[in-house]
Structure formats: C-alpha cells, structure tokens
Amino acid sequence: MVYGCLYCARSYQKTLSALNFADSKTLKEEKREELFENLKADDSIGWDVDVIDPKELSAKMLKKSVYLDTVGDPEKYRTKLSQRFPAIKFVVAKKADSLYPVVSGASIVAKVTRDRALREWVLDETADNTHRNFGSGYPGDPETKAWLEHHKHLIFGFPSLVRFSWGTCTPYLKDMVEVLWESDKMDEEGSGSSHGKRQLKLSNVGFTPSKRKSEEIESSGKGRCKFFQARKLEQVVHF
Asked: Fewest CB atoms within 10 Å of the CB: 15, 112, 122, 127?
C-alpha cells in the first residue's frame, strides 16, 4: 500500500493546473515518470510518500477493532476529519484525483512510487516455481490473477508480497485447508469457556520426551489428544 501527498502555496494553484496532472491511472507509465520528475524539480511543489508493506498492514489490522456500515460517504469522512483536526478545512470528494490538480499530483507520486517498488521488490520466497510475472497488481489484470492462481499454497496462502486481507484473494482462500486454532488458555478447574479448545503441550501427544514417573505415564489418557484416547493408545517406556 502506497500513500502519496502533494502540497503547494494556494497562489500556485493556477500554475499547478497548467502542469497537465491527471489521475495517474489514466496516464501511461512513461508520462507518469515524466510528470513525476518534473514535479520533483519544481521548488514550488512539495511531496511525500508512505509505503506500507503487506505484512505490516495485515499485522496492524489485527490490532484494531473498527466497525463501519459503509466507506462510501465523503461527507462522513469530512465530518470525522474536521472533528479530529478542527483548524483545517477538508474537501473530501469521490474521484478527487480527477477533480483537483493537487490530488492528481499526489496520485502520480503514489503510483510511480508503487510501480518502482514492485519492480525492485525482493521476494522472500525462493521456490523454483516462483516468478515475478505478477502484472500490474490490480484486481482486473489477468496476469495478476494468473500469478495468484499459480502461487497459492493450500496451507500457507500466498507469498509475502500479497496482502491476505485483499478482497481479490478471497476466491482463492476458499479452496485452502481450513485451520482450527486452539485456545491458548487452559480450561482447568472449570475456568474458561466450555466452547474453547484446550491447547495441549507437545509432551501430552507424545512428540517430546516426558520426565514423568512411570506410574504417572500409565494413566487413563485424561488430558491427552482425542486421537490417542479414541484409539486407546498409551505412552510406554518398556515393550
């Protein structure tokens, strides 16, 4: 995810309109690069970008609780921002990057930075069948869809380049292995929810050596994984 901003003096707005900025998605890559270099060379214009990688974005989404009925009402966003920053006048509009030159410039900054980041991205995954032909990275790009289909993993999902909360990933995630995460709270002595599952230590399922006394090992299996209980399997030290 790349956020871009562009700023200038209000007296410079007429000049800004003459620079032929437009919604970055409507411009060819060569034109975006040209306009980006022009605005960088203009001392009357300031700009900045914030690049957030998919892992950071997904991790921070898990730390927040947000309840929204809709995200499409500009007036609600304007009201919220005005309440938070009362000294600033906000203009919030749909398709603002095609209506206001200053937003068009910010769109170009973000788009060029995004494209460059994708070209230079170093994939964490090193499997032989991993390739970089992921296209533009937009939902409607057939090359992007083909890349997602080729790189999906039934257990681990997608490479770290992909944000799993991206709506485009949803159809692919439906075909993956369902994982049941057990609660890490021990439900002992009647505490905790009766609906939660007890997370067992590895020693309880026979994967690690146990230091308990032999008489403790020869138990009824209480507290052990249901797989072993159902098959009446017990831990033994002597055959």
From this structure: 122
Q: Find the distance separating the first CA and the last CA of the chain, reported in whole Å.
A: 59
Other CB atoms within 10 Å distance of the CB of residue 27: 20
Read off the tokens for 220.
């009824």
CA–CA separation, 216 vs 218, rounded Å?
5
* Each residue's pLDDT tens digit, 184-209: 554 444 444 445 444 444 334 344 44
Is residue 158 pLDDT above 60, yes or no?
A: yes
pLDDT given for residue 63 in this prediction: 57
Burial of 95 (0-12, 13-18, 19+ CB in 10 A): exposed
Look at residue 213 and tell me whether its pLDDT is greater than 80. no
**Residue 48: helix, strand or coil by DSSP?**
strand
DSSP output for 111-180: HHHHHHHHHH---S---TT-----TT--TT-HHHHHHHHHH-BTTTBS-TTS-TT-GGGHHHHTTSPP--
Tokens describing residue 55:
């892992």
CA 119, CA 211: separation in Å to the nearest integer? Answer: 54
Rounded to an integer, what distance in angstroms lies between the CA atom of residue 105 and that of residue 19?
9
Tell me if the pTM is above 0.85: no
Domains of the chain: 2-120 (3.30.420.10), 126-179 (1.10.10), 196-239 (no CATH)
